[in-house]
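BUG: 3D viewer hangs when loading the predicted structure for this chain

Environment: internal workstation, default settings.
Expected: structure renders.
Actual: progress bar stalls at 90%.

Input used:
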Amino acid sequence: MSDGSWLTLPADTGFGPANLPFGVFSWDSSAARRVGVAIGGQVLDLTSLAAEQNLRVADLFAAGTLDRFLAAGRPVWREIRARLTDWLTSPTGRPVIEPHLLPRNDVRLHLPFTVGDYVDFYSSRHHAENAGRIFRPNLPPLPKNWLHLPVGYHGRSGTVVVSGTDIVRPRGQRLAPGEQTPSYGPTLRLDMEVEVGFVVGTPSRHGIPVPLADFAEHVFGVFLVNDWSARDIQMWESQPLGPFLGKSFATSISPWVVPLDALEQARVAPPPHDPEPMPYLAESDEPWGLDLALEARLNGHPVSRPPFASMYWTPAQQLAQLTANGASVRTGDFYASGTVSGPEPDQRGSFLELSWGGRDPLTLPDGSQRTFLADDDEVTITASAPGPDGGRIDFGEVTGRIRPALGTSPG
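Structure tokens produced before the viewer hung:
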């Protein structure tokens, strides 16, 4: 028994009763999707459990997505979490739970919710300054607006894919160094971006901004994001507008959504702000910075360990900015933090920074070198956070393997 549960769990499990992340899976050869909760090395089939127990909220899990559950709101999120915690930590819950447990390694995981709008932010000061120095070496590294608001852009929700999905190298226009005219072809500078995502459960009303204090009333939980980027395509097209085809080909997310309620011990203050944020972005005495330990691995080899606690803008501030003009958020909308980078070279969350724009190749244990990603490379991002009583909260992983470009020039 571990972490207060009647289950036999490893002492160092990050999927104990203090976590209870939600996801969607299918079992065996059946195509039917079910809502599940990760516990230790198993998945609790919440769809079948809720139906068998005739829970009043059973219909929230019947469709095999988290959509209805997310839309039900924070009181229901907490009710289900409390019920599961009670069953998992009380011996009387064993006969209720045990018949609905499945080996986690034997299930197939899917996108946990129907993705609505997708917004990506740019909120790590270390990343923004590094990118500025690489792209604009003779100018100040930060744009004038960066210290005043969380900068972001709207991405493409239709190409959000679950962890384990192969990433086909994208094609596009790019201007090679020293050339006067662009060429079309596979990107030569394919990159990862280590990010953290936040999914909206309770919608907001159109025309009414979401205040910082209401962050946890709207955002259900947290997961991992790899915002794949084609840097050469991005550089050529981003004049004067922002990311487009250099980003829209794929964004990978992890399958397990960790509830905000599991992250109370991870809350920290963000770095000091100078200048002070405007009132609608000024956090209270209980800010929503998060102490998440991230790691990126290339072909199994750790290449970066970015600290999320160093993020200049918090997820609560990001949501406030996203809705500041009255734009509404809907169930299934999610936004990403932007690349997470720290002050040290081994804390840089992209190959753009790790190789300093391609100038400084990384040498891998097999002797090969990388400035950007090669075909058949596999990138895996993991994370954990402090939990109760010195334990850890695990986020699982988001993984993607690069496949060669397909197709030919559009002519």
